[in-house]
Hints:
Helix 3 (82-96) packs across helix 4 (118-126), helix 6 packs across helix 8 (222-230) and helix 15 packs antiparallel against helix 19. The chain is an alpha/beta fold. It has a 7-stranded parallel sheet with strand order 8-19-13-12-11-9-10, sandwiched between helices. Strands 20-18-17-16-14-15-23 form a 7-stranded mixed sheet, with helices on both faces. The protein has a 5-stranded mixed sheet with strand order 1-7-5-6-2, with helices on one face. The two termini are 55 Å apart. A hairpin with a 2-residue loop joins strand 17 and strand 18. Helices cover 39% and strands 20% of the residues.
Amino acid sequence: xxxxxxxxxxxxxxxxxxxxxxxxxxxxxxxxxxxxxxxxxxxxxxxxxxxxxxxxxxxxxxxxxxxxxxxxxxxxxxxxxxxxxxxxxxxxxxxxxxxxxxxxxxxxxxxxxxxxxxxxxxxxxxxxxxxxxxxxxxxxxxxxxxxxxxxxxxxxxxxxxxxxxxxxxxxxxxxxxxxxxxxxxxxxxxxxxxxxxxxxxxxxxxxxxxxxxxxxxxxxxxxxxxxxxxxxxxxxxxxxxxxxxxxxxxxxxxxxxxxxxxxxxxxxxxxxxxxxxxxxxxxxxxxxxxxxxxxxxxxxxxxxxxxxxxxxxxxxxxxxxxxxxxxxxxxxxxxxxxxxxxxxxxxxxxxxxxxxxxxxxxxxxxxxxxxxxxxxxxxxxxxxxxxxxxxxxxxxxxxxxxxxxxxxxxxxxxxxxxxxxxxxxxxxxxxxxxxxxxxxxxxxxxxxxxxxxxxxxxxxxxxxxxxxxxxxxxxxxxxxxxxxxxxxxxxxxxxxxxxxxxxxxxxxxxxxxxxxxxxxxxxxxxxxxxxxxxxxxxxxxxxxxxxxxxxxxxxxxxxxxxxxxxxxxxxxxxxxxxxxxxxxxxxxxxxxxxxxxxxxxxxxxxxxxxxxxxxxxxxxxxxxxxxxxxx
Length: 631
């Protein structure tokens, strides 16, 4: 029987050999001693006895073993050779009691190259074994700036914490994201044996279901697909799910995975679709819409602004649109409860008004495909929902121009909250607006959501009196009006300008397109759709105090009309960053994606982006999904 198995393996090896030659490829195993001749080696590290995934055993260390095997450790020696006899003897041992002797191998860039034990690997792979034990020495290359090297550096940290070598990602942040999913409170925690077993069981089940469905047609690694899944369905819950549940959820998630695999990512809709379709949709006369907020209008100026937008929406449509408000969804459980209530209320559309609600929004959309869910966030590649936001940087640019024209000492304060997508563009736009009218203007950046932050006192102690704060009006009229651009002097506060986001205008235009069917023309294949509207859509506006100088008001009105008409862009010309790099937006226009993911600050900004561990817990939770720089 063992000789019959050898004949099967040998015939398979000859086919692979001929196919490789026909494609102009080497038919033999890769040789590590040849590979490392062209690599700078930093050191070697003994890993001891390690369980090696057989799929990662790709080659041999010595060139002398090459003629015996083709790819996949398939034998190439005739069945009448001593080699075939030894292979057959190992086959008998595997079928009777199992191959127990470990192999000896080198690991290089998470691939394994055999020093001793080639035939053991060949027999085990022939019978579909998953792993083999081996005494392993790791060869560490000198790190460079290639993507492959950066990913491997992340893997080394991951391996030191988890002991896992069977997982791989195509992006360098993949390993860090997985650590944060498994240990959200401590990404430096060493995994114990139980955590390793739990993860392996989950990964094995997920991999089987993923590969059965993908049938090798996707370029994503299993790890990549698993991250997409775990960013929607919590790992802490999913690790105990059955294969049937994973299979069902993976099927509903498949468009999300294919979207990421094809890198179609996000389709930004920069202005409303005003054209009506040739064949309008005959909508129902009554539309039920739920608004879900992470806070309340009484405690959050952000929620208050969206509540004003909700009331404006109802007024615009009269009795045709009925809305409900479900607030206080500031935890996962509360968010899921609110979304379930919205579904039970037979809502046609659900607007979730915070990036914090992104994950439960996608879960709800996947579980209820007949309900349309929209989330207020940027740069989220989820075709299952639609997202929306406003181009707030346009208003910030105008406020910067006002501040630059008024400051008498060239110093202006700017208070930001979270370093999430779009916020850096707001800061830079403000700084560029100030520099446009005052080349000496310096913008002093403070963050309100950092630990022990005393941002207003620091600006006051520095004698900075012109300050740009959050552009949100609170429902509590008894609070000081620290909103928009203001002048703080002699214990008095003078509000000068406010960049206004008219959420009601955005909601009205989205709902109108949904009702008349032009909504469907926004979709392009499997792209995720993000509405990102600004002044040209009436979503962003600027309110100025009448106390501003007449010349300043005229300048701002001219700039506003130019931005609205598309004749001027705040990010144009050559812009110098804090590091001295020149961003050339004179020879080409800045792209929307560059604006959203901007991770640099203009050279007239004093201050920087806060580190993850400097942020408050509420900010850290948001940074994990929406942060410019992930932890």
